[in-house]
Amino acid sequence: MKTHLATLALAAATLAPAFAESLSFDFKDPKGVNNIVFQLDAPLESINGTASGISGTITADPENPADVKGKIVVVTETLHVPNPVMKEHLHGPKWLDIKTHPEIVFELQEVSNVKREGNTGTADVKGTFSLKGVSKDITVPVKVTYLPGKLKARGGDVDGDLLVVRSNFTINRSDFGIQAGENTEKVSEEIAITLSLAGAAPKK
Amino acid sequence: MIRRSLRFTGLAIAALVVAFWLISGADRGWTKTSVTIQKTDEVTGLEYPVIENRFVPGVEFLALGTLAGLALSALTFLPIPTKTKNT
After folding, report:
1. How far apart are CA A120 and CA A146, in angstroms?
2. Which residues of A sit within 8 Å Cβ distance of B?
3. B44 touches chain A (CB under 8 A)
4. ipTM of this model?
5. Are B69 and B11 in contact (CB under 8 A)?
6. Which residues in A lie closer than 8 A to residue B36 (C-beta atoms)?
7. Exposure winner among A9, A14, A114, B80, fewest CB in 10 A?
8. Tens digits of per-residue pLDDT, B5-60?
């Protein structure tokens, strides 16, 4: 009995510092894994692209998943489609206007419907999505996996934790003033977005 | 002689364009200058795209190239205007 209590106390003492405070996860991934995939499926044309210039910080308490703050930033210039003419149009003033609007931002406001199973959880994240100068509150479903002590496994010398965030959601381009109602036969109104992100919290 | 050479050159261009398009994967989309390959990060399990610069001819390449070749060949069938002497 005494042995069990001692083991429990040791485990609590070991785990307590890890969960005592919020962790700050940096989403500027040096391995370049973080990515966003966007798909537009119009009657005459399907457009598939990716974005890689992702940064931002999310502060989260693994013990209290609802307490999350932070934002994710995407450099608009990194939005890529394989056809060079299409890419030029996408970046141009009629569509995303990357010179005037160099960033796409999602700023977290609140988290609800948190369901947790081990190190993985799902939740609905409400935040402000800013695209081409228009900000709109949206709620997106996310799946989060907390990987304590896994930072070093990705290469490098620093110990720390990883937070993996996955999400699939849809936005409407007309909501953000992107050629509303124009060319809908070739460029669909709905943009399906898939987020695959990993944030790192190095141990101090 | 020149007509015959141009005719065969035009047909050869059209045939080469079709062959190049077929060999490159017969892509029925627009021409691409990059190809996206999916990889998986072992630690996080995240899938991520790796973009490789590669030319993949699409339907507009096929259409324009074939048309240009056939047009060159067709030009050789046009009659040459002859100078008539006025007496």
Report:
1. 6
2. 31-35, 37, 50, 52, 80, 82-86, 145, 147, 150, 153-154, 162, 164, 166, 196-198
3. yes
4. 0.79
5. yes
6. 50, 82
7. B80
8. 999 999 999 999 999 999 999 999 999 999 999 999 999 999 999 999 999 999 99
